[in-house]
Design brief:
Length: 462
């Protein structure tokens, strides 16, 4: 990775701090002490699915993808180093040498100064957004809804009956749910596209009942990757780009979003979803659209991974139109600006097996650190509130979702909630979602929470 020194910042080594942005939704993002080193993946699959694929992760520096901020800690101006183009996202590093932070980059960035970190991040977000949105006619502007999601209660075993049971419960308990979102599990597997799993039941009937109840229908899709054993992968090997990790018991492969066949398929399938009456789409595992090409391979069109990714996401936005609410997840952050209404800014609240909350709050650190993005890049999706009594983290998570989230969603079977859980859900939904930017105090609070979470992690895993 070829880098050039951009700057040498004189700092107070004991008080200076550095913000490092990650590549995608699930990547680490936090404020580090200036003498720290960045978080690193433990396994190859983590590098692919949580960091920036194909990019070395520094072991002796703090590394960022596209955005790095240095607060010298001595009262001097805060320095911000950021990408200016959604498809040109350099890797930056910062390393403390004596009383100076050396900042390096693999490509062009804009360097600015501000009196404090909150101002620096707000100014960067506003400028980047203005440039990114200028390339997107009719960019997203929809008001964020409130959402019920099936995932954290039913996982891949969700059925039409489960969805309809909760639909009835919303009215019974006066829960202000705008969108009923069916998550992963409605389809038999990646690469099978709009095939509905036999055990799920009728997707069409569910959508009709949801809309008939005066609510909106949403659905989960992972449009930019397929399973290596899927019918699409075996029938169209020329549509594939490179390895994208592993999940669902199968190797994952990214799609070539510049290939005419892939683009035609995406256009057809998303048009069908909209025609079905679905107007809320959770687009997951989007990082696969920017995967590096496997050795000896190439994309149909000569584009970088970032260019291909943005072209694919632009296609979806064009096909579904401005009235469909798009939520990105597992998505390259800067290349997505201007194309989604909301963005998951954290990893999943928990995975299957962690339903009791004993594994801690996986998403709190990046959610808190990325508070500055709320209302500027998009509406921040903190992931779902889980309020049932068996989830040990429900009090702490409810506070985080309320204070640091923009998109209000929950993911419980309503019948599983006790009085306390029902109150938490009711209060979250009654407050509603917001597209307004957070003020400096909230961003400052988020930075403190993120730094505290990092310190707690490092105390357990030094």
């Amino acid at each position: 990775m070829s880098t050039e020194i951009l700057d040498e910042v004189l700092v107070d080594p004991a008080r200076a701090r550095i913000y490092a942005e990650g590549w995608q939704s699930w990547s680490p993002a936090t404020w580090y002490a200036a003498d720290g080193t960045g978080l690193r993946p433990d396994e190859d699959w983590q590098h692919t699915m949580r960091f920036r694929p194909g990019t070395h992760v520094a072991h002796d520096a703090i590394q960022a993808e596209g955005l790095l901020v240095v607060d010298p800690g001595d009262g001097g101006a805060v320095r911000c180093y950021g990408a200016t183009d959604p498809v040109v996202v350099p890797t930056l590093t910062a390393r403390l040498v004596d009383d100076r932070v050396l900042v390096r980059s693999t490509g062009p960035i804009e360097a600015t100064r501000a009196p404090d970190a909150e101002t620096a991040l707000a100014q960067y977000a506003d400028g980047f957004t203005q440039r990114a949105y200028a390339t997107v006619p009719g960019h997203p502007s929809a008001a964020p809804p409130t959402v019920w999601c099936s995932w954290y209660r039913y996982f891949e075993e969700v059925t039409a009956a489960d969805v309809l049971e909760n639909l009835r419960s919303f009215d019974e308990h006066d829960l202000a749910v705008d969108v009923v979102q069916i998550d992963d599990g409605w389809s038999p597997g990646l690469g099978e596209w709009l095939t509905v799993a036999d055990r799920f039941g009728s997707l069409t009937a569910v959508v009709e009942e949801v809309r008939g109840a005066g609510r909106r229908a949403g659905i989960w899709v992972a449009p930019f990757l397929v399973g290596a054993r899927s019918s699409l992968a075996t029938e169209h090997p020329d549509w594939l780009v490179g390895p994208a990790g592993r999940n669902w018991g199968d190797a994952l492969v990214g799609l070539d979003l510049t290939h005419g066949g892939v683009r035609d398929l995406l256009a057809e399938k998303f048009a069908r979803l909209v025609d079905l009456g679905i107007d809320y789409l959770k687009l997951d595992f989007l990082y696969a659209g920017a995967m590096p090409v496997r050795e000896g391979g190439r994309r149909a069109e000569d584009m970088t991974g970032e260019e291909a990714y943005r072209s694919g996401l632009s296609l979806i936005r064009e096909v579904v139109g401005p009235d469909v609410y798009l939520v990105g997840c597992g998505a390259p952050l800067l290349p997505s600006v201007g194309l989604v209404d909301a963005m998951r800014v954290s990893p999943d609240t928990f995975h299957e097996g962690g339903e009791d909350g004993s594994h801690g709050l996986r998403g709190l650190m990046p959610l808190a650190a990325r508070a500055w993005q709320q209302g500027r890049f998009w509406t921040n999706d903190p992931d779902c509130l889980v309020a049932r009594p068996t989830y040990a983290q429900r009090e702490t998570w409810a506070e985080a979702v309320t204070d640091l989230g923009g998109l209000a969603s929950f993911s419980d079977r309503v019948a599983d909630l006790d009085d306390r859980g029902l109150r938490q859900v009711h209060d979250l939904l009654a407050s509603g979602s917001t597209a307004q930017p957070f003020g400096a105090d909230a961003v400052r609070h988020g930075a403190r929470v993120a730094a505290d979470e990092l310190a707690a992690r490092q105390a357990v895993h030094p």
